[in-house]
């Protein structure tokens, strides 16, 4: 069992489970329950789904600090924007860095996201995105602006991380994910435009960061990294015949074994 609290930090448009209640829908699909069954202490805080990195990072640090026992440390497993939130908190929230042992970022746009750039600049790529995603981000500009390439470049210059914390970065490779992907069309277009492996939202070059231990790309798109694929929307008796079984829980077990 991991020594310390495992925190699952959600990305933009995401949600937590701060009370730890059973739920039919979780941002990290089935991960919290799976880790609890293995005996780990898990916390899924809620931050503003549309907020800026600064707002979300402060909320993340506050939520974690409220539940940590005296002397206890935490291991943050963050998806997408959640990784930027955690980085902000570690640098800017007084004393928070002393309570964190590990930061794992999964599909985090450390150098920005081509999807955010596309929505801001209204390029052809934005037309390939789900309408609910573009509409929500356009209405809530805090998160959208902070995820652009230019904004993340500034964030990286002003956010100097502590080398005392173990840091792990995981990219996604939608091209290896098979036909159960949700974002396969977007991932293919990003690959054509950038020439990079990507998960349909974040390129591998952006998901990896200097000073972090780099894991091999997960064969999934951005949604699949947290367990959401076509499996999630059809009865098991159908998907088990036509789609490969979901494997994301094993990926999280791999991470937890490193903590």
Task: Detail the topology: elements first, then pairings.
Blueprint: E1 5-9, H1 31-37, E2 42-43, H2 53-67, E3 74-79, H3 81-92, E4 100-106, H4 114-121, H5 131-139, H6 141-146, H7 149-158, E5 166-170, H8 184-194, H9 204-207, E6 213-214, H10 236-242, H11 248-258
Parallel strand pairs: 1-2, 1-3, 3-4, 4-5, 5-6
Helix pairs in contact: 2-3
Could you please describe the fold and organization of this structure?
The chain has 259 residues and is α/β, with parallel strands linked by helices. Helices cover 39% and strands 10% of the residues. Helix 1 links the parallel strand 1 and strand 2 (42-43). It is globular and about 50 Å long. The model has no long low-confidence stretch (mean pLDDT 88).
Task: Jot down its keywords.
259 residues; six-stranded parallel beta sheet; 11 helices; Rossmann fold; alpha/beta; 39% helix
What is the total number of structural domains? 1
Measured between the Cα atoms of the first and last residue, the distance is 10 Å
- Mean of all residue-level pLDDT scores: 88
Order of helices and strands: EHEHEHEHHHHEHHEHH
The spatial strand order of the largest sheet comes to: 2-1-3-4-5-6
The major β-sheet equals:
6 strands, parallel
Query: Shape from CA axes?
Result: globular
Number of DSSP helical runs: 11
Which percent range describes the beta-strand content?
5-15%
Rg, Cα atoms, Å: 17 Å
Q: Which structural class do you get from the secondary structure elements?
A: alpha/beta
Helix content bin: 25-40%
CATH architecture: 3-Layer(aba) Sandwich
Query: Would you identify the regions where 5 or more consecutive residues have pLDDT less than 50?
Result: none
CATH superfamily: Alpha/Beta hydrolase fold, catalytic domain
CATH topology (fold) name: Rossmann fold
**CATH level 1 name:** Alpha Beta
Please give the number of β-strands.
Answer: 6
């Amino acid at each position: 069992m991991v020594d310390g609290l495992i925190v699952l930090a959600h990305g933009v448009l995401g949600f937590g489970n701060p009370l730890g209640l059973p739920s039919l829908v979780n941002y990290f699909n089935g991960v919290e329950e799976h880790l609890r069954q293995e005996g780990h202490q898990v916390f899924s805080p809620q931050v503003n789904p549309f907020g800026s990195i600064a707002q979300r990072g402060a909320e993340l640090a506050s939520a974690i600090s409220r539940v940590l026992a005296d002397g206890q440390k935490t291991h943050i497993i963050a998806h997408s924007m959640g990784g930027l939130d955690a980085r902000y908190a570690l640098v800017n929230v007084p004393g928070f860095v002393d309570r964190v042992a590990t930061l794992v970022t999964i599909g985090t746009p450390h150098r920005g996201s081509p999807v955010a750039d596309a929505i801001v600049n209204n390029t052809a790529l934005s037309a390939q995105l789900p309408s609910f995603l573009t509409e929500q981000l356009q209405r809530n500009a805090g998160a959208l602006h902070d995820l652009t390439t230019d904004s993340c470049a500034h964030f990286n210059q002003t956010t100097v991380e502590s080398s005392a914390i173990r840091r792990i970065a995981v990219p996604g490779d939608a091209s290896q994910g098979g036909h159960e992907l949700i974002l396969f069309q977007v991932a293919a277009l990003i690959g054509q435009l950038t020439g990079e492996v990507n998960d349909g939202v974040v390129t591998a070059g952006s998901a990896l960061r200097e000073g972090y231990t780099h894991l091999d790309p997960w064969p999934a798109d951005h949604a699949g990294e947290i367990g959401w694929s076509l499996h999630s929307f059809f009865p098991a008796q159908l998907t088990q015949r036509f789609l490969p079984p979901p494997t994301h829980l094993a990926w999280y077990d791999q991470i937890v074994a490193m903590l």
